[in-house]
Amino acid sequence: MKKILLFCLLTGYSVSFAQTSLVFVFFKDKPNKAAFYANPLSELSQKSLDRRTALGVTLNDQDAPIEPTYITNIQNLGFTVTDYSKWLNGVAVNATPAQIALLQSQTYVNSVESFARNTSGVPKMKNINKWEDLNPNAGKNLTVFDYGSGAQQIDQINLRPLHLAGYTGTGVTIAVIDTGFPNVNTGSAFSRLWNNGHIKGGYDFVTKTTDIYNSSLNIHGTVVLGAIGGFVQDTFVGSAPDADFYLYRSENANIEIPEEELYWIEVAEEADRKGVDLITTSLGYYNFDDPKYNYTYANMNGTTSFIARGAEIAVNKGIFVLFAAGNSGTQPW
User: Which domains are assigned to the chain?
Assistant: First the structure.
């Protein structure tokens, strides 16, 4: 009996010691970046390049694709790689302490950073400056809407004068990053967007599919798109009904895992490729299902969390990035 108990204790110790954590593997370089600089359109759309030109943003190594042989090398070490970032120049994998040491020993690896911020366990708690350059036709035509039930949100942020001046989103491309967009492909409030070609595309970075309109998904993304681009004649008008939209899912509303930060960065990179002018997202992370990944208040400094680093880069690419957190206004933070 004593031998059995000792074996169980040692086994439990071994399993806990070898527990994996999500880590980000930063690569040292991008050996083939010269090919990108020679042909930027191989990675970025003309619209993306035009935004940089209008705002005086120069290309840099972040814009170059990640080195595919490095990803292959990581996979050959036995790791599963599903998410990676060219901006951060690395991949996300789950690794044990021994595997982290193995990763750090690779000649092409610069460093390995864990997503985990504590190991003791924390209880889970319940400007674009050149507008005219980007939009030369904006402000030319007066626009009058019957806002209906949308009047309250329009007046709250004083949008009527802008709409009257013709600023209704024409020529502006917006990426909505959220939980999914169920029924946007069939809902009457979005017919005007479809009929005028304003829905430009979308992708689900959680499931790696295009199934963003599935009725089983959380409706928050649909509501956000409706507030911005929804239109029902004489009944409701959104804040930018003539804008173009890319719709992306990066959040699984049923769970809270650190991988979702990487999904968001991947979305932002794709939005940049498409040449979006603005990203709007109602997502933020500090508490996770596994508390070892929780952020403290002090971590919320704009440089610690992965999603904050990704958002900073997006801004530096000339994208206006808007995070909304109104639903959390009454919480302690």
Answer: 16-114 (no CATH), 131-328 (3.40.50.200)
